[in-house]
Design brief:
single chain, 304 residues, two-stranded antiparallel sheet, two-stranded antiparallel ribbon, 5% strand, metal-binding, MYND-type domain-containing protein, Znf_MYND, zinc ion binding
């Protein structure tokens, strides 16, 4: 029963806008502070799970960003270091690290438009959380510009807007995600109904994976976008890296680039093949093909 509640859309919905709005309507004393802390902690559990990006999409769709920004002054008035630290982490770390996913960015674009429309996110309204908000906002705008560049290069085809293959509607803003498996998106209930016979089996299998805490297959568009921005970053830095390697007498074939987009700011480290060591042997004497066993070759595969 607990698993069913935890992996349903209602779990995220009930822990975002309604709870935060209720807290915001009460004086900042112990009861609403504890309720808000419980709210954020449970949302963080979803974010830390195997399918964190899917939960981030659901939380943003449910109004997490606008509700949090509305509560900034309330949080300032509460003068509660733990609560402030949790909200600061939400903006500058937890949400920011998912801005590598195209599925998350699509929702973030709508959220930013709503924030502007409501007059939220200004230095005055954000108060002491202005710095954390700006970290998220600046990174989001940077990644959204890259998303637009990816789209212009054919990263998204017409049929991939609505998950019903026969649908040609071009309104990306109207898309809503399947609340059962958190996977495909549809432009209308009618398209979802027509697609259900084909989606039914996959929906049930994916939902079971959510219930079991297993990682669902990564969305192909998310993977395509991650590869796109990774290649851009490599191409931007590679000339200098190769010049430095030539001056140091380091063969270019021994260079490995370690890029981490899930931290803010992004880290980019140049390493040597020797840093990873040779492939290990498995217990039966054969080659160990696990990520750890593949060593530097696993890193090279990730950059292909």
């Amino acid at each position: 029963m607990i698993k069913s509640v935890y992996t349903s859309r209602s779990f995220i919905t009930s822990l975002t806008s309604p709870v935060l709005q209720w807290c915001n309507a009460h004086p900042p004393n112990a009861r609403p502070i504890n309720a808000m802390l419980l709210c954020y902690r449970n949302i963080f559990k979803g974010f830390h799970s195997a399918n964190g990006s899917a939960w981030a999409v659901q939380a943003l769709d449910s109004g997490l960003l606008t509700a949090t920004l509305r509560a900034c002054k309330w949080i300032d008035a509460a003068e509660h270091p733990e609560l402030f630290g949790v909200v600061e982490k939400l903006l500058s770390d937890m949400l920011s690290k998912y801005l590598i996913f195209r599925s998350v960015l699509r929702v973030v674009r709508r959220c930013l438009r709503q924030v502007t429309k409501l007059g939220l996110g200004t230095k005055e309204s954000a108060g002491a959380l202005w710095g954390a908000w700006r970290v998220f906002q600046v990174l989001a705008e940077e990644r959204l510009s890259l998303l637009d560049a990816w789209d212009r290069k054919g990263g998204r085809s017409e049929r991939q807007l609505c998950s019903r293959l026969q649908c040609t509607r071009q309104d990306d803003e109207a898309l809503k995600r399947c609340s059962g498996c958190l996977g495909p998106t549809y432009c209308s209930k009618e398209c979802q109904r027509l697609s259900w016979p084909l989606h039914k089996r996959g929906c049930r299998e994916s939902r079971q994976m959510l219930l079991d805490g297993l990682e669902m297959p990564r969305d192909k568009l998310d993977v395509s976008f991650i590869r796109f921005i990774t290649k851009l970053e490599i191409n931007r830095r590679l000339p200098k890296i190769l010049r430095d390697a030539l001056q140091a007498g380091v063969p270019r074939s021994t260079i490995v680039l370690d890029i981490n987009h899930t931290v803010v700011p992004m880290t980019f480290t140049v390493k040597r093949v020797s840093d990873f060591g040779p492939p290990r042997r498995s217990g039966d004497g054969g080659e160990d093909h696990s990520p750890a066993g593949r060593g530097w070759r696993g890193m090279a595969d990730a950059l292909d």
